[in-house]
Amino acid sequence: MNNSTEGTSYSGLLSPSNTTDLRDFKISVLFSIVFMTVGITSNSLAIVILLKAYQRFRKKSKASFLLFASGLVFTDLFGHLINGTIAIFVYASNREWSKFDHANVLCSIFGMCMVFFGLCPLLLGSVMAVERCIGVTEPIFHSTKMTSRHAKMILAFVWLFAILVALLPIATLRSYHIQASKTWCFLKTEQIEDWMDQFHLLIFSCLGLLSLAISFVCNAMTGITLIRSKLKSQQHRKGRSHHLEMIIQLLAIMCVSCICWTPFLVEGKKRILMFASLSLTSKIISRMSIIYM
């Protein structure tokens, strides 16, 4: 009898469904570790290169761009480090949030980190695009007004603004929610009935889409100005190549941001509009039924 019971338990552990789940679990954990390691390594290398370049161009027009780029890379580095560590811990705990996060503290921290480290690169990408647009279209104004001190103040303001947006749900007595995969936390994205939850997701989506739009417009203006300058004169090739190098970097950042974030941001805005329209329709129907009863 005992042998049959043990055999049943053993076969249950090695059943095809359990084996598949275990394999998927290992792949997910391995992917998180590899993604975090690659992100940390590449960003660390980029920081070293940018710091060396900043020392060379410290008193030139390129300094502010390099400062913003360094801020972007630093932010992305810590994003990979913090979010990746929490994600690996969640996987290691078998995604059983009720056992290791009774008070929803870790989920709130994870959610705030996702909002902050998600919004910061988008905002900094748009700031870098604006900075290059001014540097190319208004070089005199840029050289006199865009100092390293001003760039550091703008960088600090972007970080502070992103922190305030991340703290907004907590400040309004709302909470971050475990997402469907149970591997991460974010703003409420399913069954959004409360107007405040809709507002939080709308703020994040609108800020992200606005940042991408600003980046696109400014990069387009910068590119058009450089092309016109090249067609008019063949002088100052070094100056144009210097701007061209930075605009290529900005286009790469913008393309990556668009690919990674646009579907999520658009879907978030669509869900808000859908829930808002359903809510408005239900209110109209209920009022009409009261009137005609």
Which structural traits does this protein have?
2 strands; 9 helices; two-stranded antiparallel sheet; 84% helix; mainly alpha; 293 residues; single chain; disordered N terminus
Description:
The protein has helices at residues 2-13, 16-56, 62-92, 97-100, 105-137, 139-145, 148-171, 195-232, 237-292, and strands at 177-178, 185-186. The chain is mostly helical and 293 residues long. The protein contains 9 helices and 2 strands; from the N terminus they run αααααααββαα. It has a two-stranded antiparallel sheet with strand order 1-2. 84% of the residues lie in helices and 1% in strands. The radius of gyration is 25 Å and the shape is globular. A hairpin with a 6-residue loop joins β1 and β2 (185-186).
Would you spell out the secondary-structure blueprint of this structure?
Blueprint: H1 2-13, H2 16-56, H3 62-92, H4 97-100, H5 105-137, H6 139-145, H7 148-171, E1 177-178, E2 185-186, H8 195-232, H9 237-292
Antiparallel strand pairs: 1-2
Helix pairs in contact: 2-3, 3-5, 3-7, 5-6, 5-7, 5-8, 5-9, 8-9
